[in-house]
Amino acid sequence: MKREAGLSDFESDIRPLWTLAQAGDDRAYRRALELMARRLRGYYRRRMANLPDDVEDLVQETLLAVHLQRGTYDPAFPVSAWFTAIARHKLIDLWRRRGRQEDLHDEYGAVDESCLAASTEESHASRDLEKLIKVLPAVQRQAIELTKLEGLSVAEASARTGISESAIKVQVHRGLKRLTELIKGTGS
Question: Are 95 and 101 in contact (CB under 8 A)?
Fold first, then answer.
């Protein structure tokens, strides 16, 4: 495929395939997932040297998340930025499940910058998220910030706020639903 000026090789390869896949092209979708799987294997092998048997499981878990979250992709941003964010979250989730917080801190300095989106793109996404989340009622915003952005469990968020666990879950659900409506332009 022809390379677009200023884009990484991966982004130049994946963007046209993902655009076709989003439009319903099954062949392009399978090819995009193959490229993502190849990229994920390298990404995870570098970060999971002490867990080599878990690499393929995490690749499959991430591809499933990509499939389930494909509707959240915004064509205004690089596919690689969206995809890498999902991969990074899946890796953090794995480390949390395994109680390997020290790996999270040790590996941060060794992040391969070529796998990540440019920092200006991340700052734009952060700014957009801040604008969106400010629209939510305070209780929904707090529940989402604690559980989704800070990574606290529902129990930890409940303990910190004094709100019941079920109320935290309800507020997160309602807040995410509202954010989805705002992003799709169906919210008022």
Answer: yes
pLDDT in tens, 3-14: 444 457 889 999
Query: Same domain for 105 and 147?
Result: no
Shared domain for 48 and 83, answered yes or no, is yes
Residue that is last in its domain, among 83, 117, 151: 117
Taking the CA atoms of residue 93, residue 13, residue 26 and residue 80 in that order, the dihedral angle to the nearest 10 degrees is 20
Question: Rounded to an integer, what distance in angstroms lies between the CA atom of residue 14 and that of residue 182?
Answer: 27
Range of the domain at 172: 118-188
Please give the torsion angle defined by the CA atoms of residues 21, 22, 26 and 30, in that order, rounded to the nearest 10 degrees: 50
CA distance 65 to 67: 5
